[in-house]
Write a structure and sequence with these properties.
By secondary structure, this protein is of the alpha/beta class. 32% of the residues lie in helices and 27% in strands. The chain is globular and about 65 Å long. The structure holds flavin-adenine dinucleotide.
Length: 463
């Protein structure tokens, strides 16, 4: 069977489904092809289910340790089967069925099957019921990424990837995580809160190596309190799975050590899903990392074929994919737009959270700017104190002469939401004074941003 469409989108993650809906809103006849599950990695085995487990861990810990409030709950137990059921059937299913409904409401045709290019104008799709052909005028490739496997740690049995880590049937007594980046640290924190003994082996000298050291130190202190063991400069060498347990061999500065656990979860990064797409038939090549080169409008070498999300340059983040989706859909629909942003927020949902956007002080200086920082500790914020969560700080990076905001970094409770204000301020070219003059509700964590601007202006009230 051959279908004809104006725009075909391959992949229905936060890149693909957003592109399909926006292109349809702008008048395109759109077909979306999804090979696994509607909603992509993000909704099914990424952002959303991980945050559900993180929330379960927090709630469990709060219930166990609420006696400082005079709340005593001797009966707290964890039924992890129920936790997983809530995550899968309430959280993930509600969202993914909602996305399917939104696609249908916007008259996007859904084809479930794996797509491959047969030419620069045609796709072959293998569905459960047979093969289909889709002739298209424009295509958006949004096929996302998958976990990287490392030598000595073939996935299977007790060697799992992040997807396996999200769907464990029981909380492991002991969990080893290889890779202390964002995904490993988030899930390590969640399982520690749920009662597992967690060891994180990180190859570089610092946990969460993409964030500044002083932010990470706050998380490390909290990890220590949870009993998480972090081993840096650790080279993971091999895993031996005896069916009951798995023994991991790793080396630090040449000295080999072994650690035995119920599972070893490998979270060392992700690779782009670009190898099995027939890209050569479409006349598109990939770079050495498997990413598809694109211009500022997300056009590939073939101007009518676009690529967005984890398969193009930049951080592998859901909100980046969705931003790119909207730009590509608008370009396809005849709008003269191109990518234009000053910062992509990066959030790590550890305990406490880290969030950053725009430039760090070092980056601003390296870019030749006379930059300064202003830092406000959560300890001096009434709301943080009333939430019993005073670890951390808000730091603003600004240009000395103009007081223009260049960046911000937060570690502490609510960082994931607070970063939005700093992002908007940077995007809108706001100065410290603009934020200082904005009335912030009280008592809120957002007041820490206003307080940080007042420190930058030399007129702090709360310090
Ligand atoms: P994906 O979401 O990967 O979707 C691609 C889709 O394309 C998939 O459904 C796939 O089945 C489909 N596909 C692939 N090939 C084909 C084909 N040939 N034919 C048809 N369909 C195909 N990001 C954040 O911003 N915040 C977070 O908190 C966060 N947490 C994460 C936690 C975990 C555990 C993981 C693994 C990732 C997390 N991420 C997070 C990253 C985020 O999930 C990705 O950046 C995002 O999903 C990328 O979106 P995408 O649209 O590019 O691709």
């Amino acid at each position: 069977m051959t279908k004809k469409t104006e725009t075909v989108v391959i992949g229905s993650g936060p890149g693909g489904y957003v592109a399909a809906i926006r292109a349809a809103q702008l008048g395109q006849k759109v077909t979306i092809v999804e090979g696994k599950h509607i909603g992509g990695v993000c909704l099914n085995v990424g952002c959303i289910p991980s945050k559900a487990l993180i929330h379960a861990g927090h709630t469990y810990q709060e219930s166990l340790h609420a006696s400082y409030l005079g709340i005593k709950n001797a009966q707290t137990t964890l039924d992890f089967t129920a936790t997983q059921k809530w995550k899968d059937e309430t959280v993930v299913r509600t969202l993914t069925s909602g996305i399917r409904m939104l696609l249908q409401k916007n008259k996007v045709q859904i084809v479930e099957g794996r797509a491959r290019f047969t030419s620069a104008k045609q796709l072959a799709v293998q569905t459960q019921t047979g093969a289909e052909t889709i002739d298209f005028q424009q295509a958006i490739i949004a096929t996302g990424s998958q976990p990287i496997e490392i030598p000595g740690f073939a996935f299977g049995g007790r060697v799992i990837d992040s997807t396996g880590g999200l769907s464990l049937k029981e909380v492991p007594k002991k969990l080893v995580i290889i890779g202390g980046g964002v995904i490993g640290s988030e899930l390590g924190g969640a399982y520690a809160n749920l009662g597992a003994e967690v060891t994180i082996l990180e190859g570089s000298p610092q946990l969460l190596p993409t964030y500044e050291k002083d932010l990470v130190q706050v998380v490390e202190t909290s990890f220590k309190k949870k009993g998480i063991q972090v081993v840096t400069n650790a080279l993971a060498k091999a895993a031996k799975d005896d069916g009951q347990q798995v023994t991991v061999t790793y080396a630090v500065k040449g000295k080999e050590t072994q650690v035995t656990a119920d599972y070893v979860m490998v979270t060392v990064g992700r690779k782009a899903n670009t190898t099995d797409l027939g890209l050569e038939k479409a006349g598109i090549s990939v770079d050495p990392r498997g990413l598809i080169p694109v211009n500022d409008q997300y056009q590939t070498k073939q101007k009518h074929i676009y690529a967005i999300g984890d398969i193009v340059e930049g951080p592998a983040l859901a909100h980046k994919a969705s931003y790119e989706a909207k730009v590509a859909a608008e370009v396809i629909s005849g709008k003269n737009v191109a990518k234009d942003y000053r910062g992509i927020p990066a959030i790590c949902f550890t305990d406490p959270e880290i969030a950053s956007v725009g430039q760090t002080l070092a980056e601003a200086k390296a870019a030749g700017k006379q930059a300064k920082t202003a830092t406000f500790p959560l300890q001096a914020n009434g709301r943080a104190l009333s939430l019993n969560a005073t670890e951390g700080f808000v730091r603003l990076v600004f240009e000395e002469e103009t007081e223009l905001l260049l960046g911000g970094q937060i570690v502490g409770i609510g960082a994931s939401d607070l970063i939005a204000e700093i992002t908007l301020a940077i995007e809108s070219y706001l100065t410290l004074e603009d934020i200082a003059l904005t009335i912030h509700g009280h008592p809120t964590l957002s007041e820490t941003i206003m307080d940080a601007t007042e420190i930058g202006l030399g007129l702090p009230i709360h310090m």
